[in-house]
Design goal:
140 residues; alpha/beta; 2,3-Dihydroxybiphenyl 1,2-Dioxygenase, domain 1; 4-stranded mixed beta sheet; 3 helices
C-alpha cells in the first residue's frame, strides 16, 4: 500500500471564525467552500475544515470528534519566521500555546491553537529542507 495521507479534516464549531484563522492568519486560499466545509489544497494533500455537526453526521457518531493528542505542523524557512507566524495566527483568532523556543532536539518552534483547539506547531528545522513547492524532506 502506498504510504501517503490524502485528506486531513478538522471539525470546527464556526466556519467563519475558522476561515479567518486559516485564510487571514496563514494566508491560505481555499480551493472549495460551501456552508459546511472549506478545502485548502496543500502540498500533496488536502486540508478540510468541516462544521463539527456535519462531520459527526457523516461519521454517524455524536460527540466523537474534537481536538486530541496530536498536533499539525507548519515548517518555515527561517528561524526568525517562527514567532512572527505565531503572532499572526494569534491576531487572527488563534491561541498561543507555547512561545517560540529552542527544544532539546534542535531547531526552533512554538505552538498555537486554531479557534477550535487544534494545535499547530510552527517550526524551523535546519536539517529539514523545504522545496519551492513547500515539500518538507526528512533530514538527518
Amino acid at each position: 500500500m502506498q504510504q501517503q495521507i490524502s485528506v486531513i479534516t478538522l471539525g470546527v464549531d464556526e466556519l467563519v471564525r475558522s476561515r479567518r484563522f486559516y485564510i487571514d492568519g496563514f494566508g491560505w486560499k481555499p480551493v472549495f467552500a460551501n456552508a459546511e466545509i472549506v478545502f485548502y489544497q496543500m502540498n500533496g494533500l488536502m486540508l478540510g475544515t468541516w462544521l463539527l455537526s456535519a462531520l459527526e453526521a457523516d461519521l454517524r457518531r455524536q460527540h466523537a470528534v474534537g481536538p486530541g493528542a496530536f498536533s499539525l505542523a507548519h515548517n518555515v524557512a527561517r528561524r526568525e519566521d517562527v514567532q512572527p507566524t505565531l503572532d499572526r495566527l494569534v491576531s487572527f483568532g488563534g491561541t498561543l500555546l507555547l512561545p517560540a523556543d529552542a527544544p532539546p532536539h534542535g531547531g526552533f518552534r512554538g505552538y498555537a491553537a486554531d479557534p477550535d483547539g487544534h494545535a499547530w506547531e510552527i517550526a524551523w528545522n535546519p536539517a529539514w529542507p523545504i522545496s519551492r513547492e513547500g515539500y518538507v524532506t526528512f533530514g538527518l
